[in-house]
Amino acid sequence: MADQQHEVGGVNVYQRLAESLSTAGEFEDALEWYEKAVKDQADPNTLFLATDLQQ
User: Fold this and answer.
1) What does the DSSP 8-state code read for residue 7?
2) Helices (DSSP H) in the chain: which residue ranges?
3) Which residues, in sequence order, are bridge partners of residue 7?
4) At 29, is the pLDDT very low, low, confident or very high (cuts 50, 70, 90)?
5) Where do the TPR repeats start and stop (predicted)?
6) How far apart are CA 46 and CA 51, in angstroms?
7) Top-confidence residue, 49 or 26
8) Which of 20, 23, 28, 55 has the fewest CB atoms below 10 angstroms from its CB?
């Protein structure tokens, strides 16, 4: 189970949580969840959003 992806209906839950936190202005918390999303699934969109948030 350690390699199980955290997806619901094909959507990475970590990425969605990070997007919600970022929208709410909680950038440090969002970055933490983006990092988890990238570790879980190195999706190009997730990588872009995480990189954009760090700037």
Assistant:
1) E
2) 13-23, 27-40, 44-54
3) 12
4) very high
5) 11-44
6) 9
7) 26
8) 55
From the number of C-beta atoms within 10 Å of its C-beta (0-12, 13-18, 19+), residue 45 rates as exposed
**Residue 22, SS3 per DSSP:** helix
Q: Which residue has the tokens 């199980």?
A: 4
Angle 18-24-27 (CA atoms, 0-180°, nearest 5)?
A: 55
Tokens of 1: 């189970």
CA 41-26-5 angle, to 5 degrees, is 15
If pLDDT is split at 50, 70 and 90, which confidence band does 37 have? Answer: confident
Q: What pLDDT is attached to residue 1? A: 40
